[in-house]
Amino acid sequence: ALPQVFAGMRTSVSVALIMIVVSEMIASSNGLGYFILHAQRTFNVPAVYSGIFLLGLFGYALNALFLRLEGFVLNWHRGYAAKRL
């Protein structure tokens, strides 16, 4: 069941990142979501794009971290799946 657990964890990390940014946009006075929303409201377009780029970079890094962790923990599963075919 561990491969499915890791798939669920990777999905939940992306949803959690989205929810964190949305909650910062709605009810916070600091954070990346607040920074993007404040830059949008003040028509600071380069700051909006830099915040979005940073958010994408952070999401990509989290996904890469989970892929590396999954590859380390589930090394046996990748070899097992290749042998069964």
From TrEMBL:
GO cellular component: plasma membrane
GO BP: transmembrane transport
Protein name: ABC transporter permease subunit
Superkingdom of this protein's organism: Bacteria
Membrane topology: Multi-pass membrane protein
The UniProt record lists the keyword Transcription: no
Pfam families recorded: BPD_transp_1
The keyword Transmembrane is assigned to this record: yes
Listed transmembrane segments: 12-36, 48-69
Record key words, sorted: Cell membrane, Membrane, Transmembrane, Transmembrane helix, Transport
Localization annotation: Cell membrane
Chief location of this protein within or outside the cell: membrane
Entry-linked SUPFAM superfamilies: MetI-like
Signal peptide (UniProt feature, chain positions): none
Start and end residues of each ABC transmembrane type-1 domain: 1-69
